[in-house]
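S.,

Sequence below, as promised.
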Amino acid sequence: MFTKISNFFANATWFKCIYFIFVLLSFNSLFALRSGLSYASYAVALLGGLVVLFRLMHFKKYISVRGILWLVLFCGSYLLSAFLTRQYGLLENIQALVWMVIQFFVVYAYDTSKSTEDDKKEINILGWIFLGYTFIMAVAAIVMLVTDYNNYRPVGETAVISGFLWNRLWGFYTDPNYGAVFSIVSMVLSVAFFKAVKKTLRVFVIVNIVLQILYLTFSDSRTALVALLVTVFAAVFLLALRAKKFENKKAAVQVVISLALALVFAVGSAVVIQGTQKAGNALKVLQYEYSVKHQGDATPEIPDTLIGRTDSDMNNDVSNRRFAIWQSGLEIFKTSPITGITFRNYIPYAKENLPNTYIVHNDFGYFASMHNSFVDVFVSQGIVGILFILCFIVSVLIVFFRYFFRATAEEYRYNTFLLLMFLPILVSMLFYSETFYMNTGGAFLFWSFLGYLMHALNKSAPQPKLLAKFTEAKR
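The prediction came back faster than expected:
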């Protein structure tokens, strides 16, 4: 009886579903910053703790997970940083550590005794949860755009926004950047699922892709646009590299052709987004003119309802304050370069030690993150934390470059899909805080699909004879 319970908790597919839904709703404006979700977080954390506990009892199945020991040291480093800066706040840092432990050792960590087929079953469940959620969110957002609906709900020193506001489509996402990056992941998932589903569901998949393009366009997220270009480029390059049409060509020729095709498709995707935004603006003008005509409004000017921010909207700053925030991060780092100051202590620490630094002294408000995940690690855990996470990254890259291009044709397509599922999140990490210290849907997607990829690559058998021409790896 105990063995069955132990295996049930260690497997954790059920928990991943609960946790995924929880983090998605945490950044949904209908649920965000409400007491009910706060209470739910305690239950989710408790369940996650039980999963970690039972996995420790089966540690032999997880001890060889790629980079897992570096992640253990990374968490230990954060605990040390939290202890050393406890005078600025300890409880919130413990909470951040709990979520990181769940993400690293439940979401990312995989059972090395299982096959990739078990992963595929889990991906199918999580995938449909995500597709259903992003589809509903996109439909709701488009309705808000058409009706010019918006809502601004103050909550303490912050606010929860929904609808179409400040020239951007938020929908029910608390941040349009998060929503737009989700749209990219949703499109990748839709393409991957297309052949596997019945014809009736293919209609749903196609409609979903169209809706996600619309949301991404009208969110006016430059972060998502960069993520889209990188994702399209990577997808076309990697798939063209192993296309049957090019299999008899020399490796160098294959690479050149694949790069050219990837560049064309990436530029084409940018053109589609820009064209869609212009069409959307034209429709908004027609909508306003129709409203003026039928309501008898004599105001001839078009109101501020067009899609897309201007330079004045961003203070004539191409980085939208990011350069100043990163500079502030460097200033803070210099005051505690070895162990950092922890992610949740930015504001109190800066107020006391660097009252003139940008994140607490500016014309906008306080900035509780560095808007770059790697700068966050740099500031939060100093050189020690950076060292551990760099070691983790190197260990992952070694496995990637050693086995990714050696896989069979079927394995290669599967591995490419896994990579494309978290690649948009990886790109977004350069422009806002994600993955580390954050309990978000993006963090879940990143760690889960990175784990699936590492599991798949570690299952791949090495084929040294194919080193001369990696693109011919076929069995």
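Strands lie at 150-155, 158-165, 168-171.

Coffee later?
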